[in-house]
Amino acid sequence: MMRKLFVATLAVAGVFGQTFAVSSVKPGAESSARKGPPPIAIDPVRLTIRHQTLKQIVARAYSLQIFQVTGGESWTGADPYDIDGSTESPASPRQMLLMLRSLLADRFQLKFHRESKEIAQPVLTVARNGPKFGPQFHPTQDAAIPPEYRIPLKEYTMEHLAFFLTDNRHMWDPDAGDPADPNQPPVLDQTGVAGTYDIGLNWAPRRDWLAGFERQLGLHLELRKLPNDVIVIESAARPSAN
Description:
The protein is of the alpha+beta class. Helix content is 25%, strand content 32%.
């Protein structure tokens, strides 16, 4: 464990010596909470983060999703921060992320290790006799989706459908918690179906929804335990504002 932690700390600190020329870390302002500009923006000379928790920032710094960042005290997933970093000369996005890693080590005293962990994740696949094309599910066309389908999804790829199912987990998962919980793994598209489609869906009781979804579209959604690379936060400290 000590060796893994030592290696991770070196990586965070920026082995290439890349740091922001000017940086600031402050508690997240209420007015910045997911309205207006993107919560994390990178241009050649500036990185801006608004109203993001330490776990969200770590996920972005290491190109992971939030459910792949675990451990740490409760505040690491609850307290939002605003971060600004600027450089004296243009830098690539990768260089900006290396500087962000260095900032996390310096200002948050972040220490962590990596490991592989099996995580239950919803997977979208083609059912045994699917897909089933018809009025409810067909390649994109100019005509409108019939009005009897109360949830019209126009020009959707299977990846877009996976995003929709992720954002609306409360519609099909009887055990779904807070729909805004970022720690829930997203739906993974493994259908292998290319192209864009018009899809019509309807509301139904959650315990019946997936059966109807499969019967009508010939698509199957199930939870599978999949190996994921995760970051486990060993320790971190709240930074002083500047």
